[in-house]
Amino acid sequence: MTAVIRTTGLGRRFAGRQVLTGVELAVQQGEIFGLLGPDGAGKTTLMQLWAAILDPSEGQATVLGFDTVRQAAEVNARVGYMSQGFTLYDRLSVLENLQFAARIRGVAAQDFAGRSHELLAMAGLQAYLDRPAGKLSGGMRKKLSLCANLIHAPPLLLLDEPSLGVDPVSRRELWQLLRRYQQHGSTVVVSTPYMDEAEYCDRLAFLDQGRVLAVDTPAQLRARVQGRIYEVRTAMTAAVQAILRDAPEVLNLQWLADRLRIQLHAGADLPPATLARLRGLATLTPAEPGLEETFIALSTAAAAAPPPVSPAVMETQGGEVRAERLCVRFGDFTAVDRVSVSVPPGEVIGWLGPNGAGKTTLIRVFCGLLMPSDGEAFVAGLSVNRQARALRSRIGYMSQRFSLYPDLTVAENLRFFAGAYGLGGKRRRQTIEWASGMTALTGMEARRVSELSAAVRQRLALACSILHGPAVLFLDEPTSGVDPLNRQRFWQLIQTLASGGMTVFVTTHYLEEASYCHRLGLMHQGRLVALGTLEQLRQALRLPADAGMEAVFLGHIEHAQRELAS
Amino acid sequence: MNPRRIAAVATKEAKDVLRDPITVGVALIMPLIMLLLFGYAITLDVDDITLGVLDEDHTPASRQLTEAFTASGVFQLERELTDPHAVERALQRGEIRLALIIPPGFERALTRHEPSPLQLLVDGTYSATATLVSSHALAIASGFGHAAGPPALQLETRVWYNPSLSSVHTVVPGLYAVILMAFPPLLTALALVREKETGTIAQIYASPLSSVEFLAGKLIPYAIIAFVQMAMVIAVGFLWFGVPFRGSVAFLLAISLLYVLCTLGIGLLVSAVTRTQLVALLAVLIVTLMPSILFSGMLFPIFTMPYVVQLYTLAFPGRYFVDISRGVVLKGVGLEVLWPSIAIVAVYTLLVFALAAWRLKKKVA
């Protein structure tokens, strides 16, 4: 085995901020190597250093035997690098984009003919040769970008979050392309924030806050926390949680839709006293660990874990969300197509679907921001058609961008949003106190939002959206860009709010997060193709009980497509 | 330098821009609009100047003098004034730009060959036209005086290169320099920064393209567009504004190709150091359009500026091209006279490209 990439003491600072520190890695020839970590972990920076389009502040890297600083041109000429986001020229057709990629890399005409034919066939793009790249779907764009980076048959391919903005169907096709390419003896490096995607890699590096936590195969990584994971099934969630939260042996507690899941500290075991208190209340069974649990174990071992969040339940008058044959059309494009759903108070419903499936449009209708073209929708008993204004004071909305004022302090943001909801005087003080206590912001009131971490900003955004005690809370991709531990803690807050009676409507890109939701709605091309608990969705397809969310999702979409075709 | 890679970038860029009808339309129409607007708006000619007359003499001679003013074609008799207060009011309201006051006893003094007092009041709020107005008026008045007696000196004045002293003939060749400085750099600056904004530049960085190859490829399609802009502007100047063309057309086109490369290069340089289209746009306007209007000599003659400002104008290629363009168009001169300016533009162009290639480092940070 020869190392294709080798780095020693690699580090990079941006304006005095250390983004990457002491990276020691070797990527072997012929493997698919994954870089797994939350946003801001340093994945993109590391990729750019390897692609020789960024110089390190410390240390060095050799790629395919060339130094990335002194021999950058050699590296550029041999590596395929697909950056995040846009890599295509929108006004150029599929074929022209590919031709451009080939010609700037000096691919001979006869090589181009053969390779482009093969790549386009593999990517299923032969039928769209003359279509401008700007008019392709997100998935097709990614596949074309990948083809453009494979046209010179590079021995090493660096892909920065290739599945960003790609629906599960296209993601699977993308991975099939990568596998086939790897079989020719080439090496692939993929970065991803998704645990389920990381499972496909031969070896993985966990990246957190600019440091490499571990490098190993996915199975070996999971084995590191073997025996520390238990599943707790109970009917008395609140009581059991109280016991487990106080146990010093518990590193982390995950509140899923139908059960709890705990991770113990390394070498710790629940003492007999705790087990005795749980007896009769709950059943404890050892469980198979996931990559996320290893990540949490390793990241909390490297740096002290932030204090756990212990939110106080507050009773809210929850409201029902109901849609009846709801349609939203923009011109002749149907964004939401005859969606009927009813969500009872206190339920957490997860809304999943590829980009452009109509999730955000649907939320905008429920929030009274967009008039439906057809059908009816009611939120907390109010009609979105006729009572949109009254409706807005009964709902909370948190967007993926966390609409906060970065130059105001935490307290100022809270006061502003409370004022915007018409709260004043004593009432305002009380709700701010409650919301900031609930989201563990106490003590941070004087900090400016711009200096907070993504996880704290996320909790502040949540606090701002629940100040007025809404009946229904809409969360649009609330966990993007947050590390696994804080994501799990955020979900605890959501579960707490729901157990107090609030209805919670969540959209998410992380398929793993489906297990936090009581029910799931799957959207595809504007239609609601499946609705039910995760278990029901599995059974509908006769999938085994341990089938992952991705398989469930793909199964239902394929089913819907077959139905549409027939 | 690999010509195949440059050709790849140029082809891609050409297709990209030709499929954007708005950019092409703006690139072709805006220079014409600017030429027409400025060509008509910037005029230093004076005609139909409103004149008020306060005739306190009421004699045939005073009426003849008034006629001499109106017959010149420069002045237009707006009103007859009756008293000094009316004169002031008319000037204040801007009804008249010039007041001619003929005192009592004007004719008598004239017939006796005595110096006869005559008052001209000029509205000086527009200083440039005021000077012209008063010199025209002076010429008419002294001509009227000469008719009464033999002159001491006979001055034969001939204006060369622009005999009709038409300001269009001065402004339009200057506008060639300003227009070719205003629009071509916008094209290149935005084209490169757009790639930075969308992120496609990362693919370029990570490819074997060198920055020189990339810049050269980017330049070619825009050089063609800019060349078309230039040919259009010169044609409209000649055919529409009737600006004479005394020198060689081929020579002017050749030199303006060099000048256009220079301005396109400034656009590339701006885009090499900026990150967003908005900043690039503002930077281009500040470094090209503004100084080319103020300091190129298109409008305000450089030789009348304070010495320090004159030194400052040396930094802008526009001023050299104004000299070249006026030299070729109005004076009919060629390389033998203009070579120093041409050499400076050439050196400037090379410098701008070297700087742009050096600044565009093929690194994301």
TrEMBL record, chain A:
Domain ABC transporter span(s) in chain numbering: 5-234, 321-550
InterPro entries: AAA+_ATPase, ABC_transporter-like_ATP-bd, ABC_transporter-like_CS, P-loop_NTPase
SUPFAM superfamilies, alphabetized: P-loop containing nucleoside triphosphate hydrolases (SSF52540)
A molecular function GO annotation: ATP hydrolysis activity
Pfam families assigned: ABC_tran
Assigned keywords, A-Z: ATP-binding, Nucleotide-binding
Record protein name field: Heme ABC exporter ATP-binding protein CcmA
Species the sequence originates in: Halomonas heilongjiangensis
Automatic annotation (TrEMBL), chain B:
Gene Ontology molecular function terms on file: ABC-type transporter activity
Pfam families tied to this protein: ABC2_membrane_3
Record's bilayer topology term: Multi-pass membrane protein
UniProt keyword Cell inner membrane, yes or no: no
Transmembrane segments: 21-42, 174-193, 219-243, 249-271, 278-303, 337-358
Record GO cellular component, one term: ATP-binding cassette (ABC) transporter complex
Entry keyword set: Cell membrane, Membrane, Transmembrane, Transmembrane helix, Transport
Signal peptide, first to last residue: none
Location within or outside the cell: Cell inner membrane; Cell membrane
Major subcellular site: membrane
Keyword field contains Membrane: yes
Occurrences of domain ABC transmembrane type-2 (ranges): 126-363
InterPro entries, sorted: ABC-2_transporter_component, ABC2_TM, ABC2_TM_bact-type, ABC_2_transport
Protein family membership: Belongs to the ABC-2 integral membrane protein family.
Name recorded for this polypeptide: Transport permease protein
Organism annotation: Halomonas heilongjiangensis
Source taxonomy: Bacteria, Pseudomonadati, Pseudomonadota, Gammaproteobacteria, Oceanospirillales
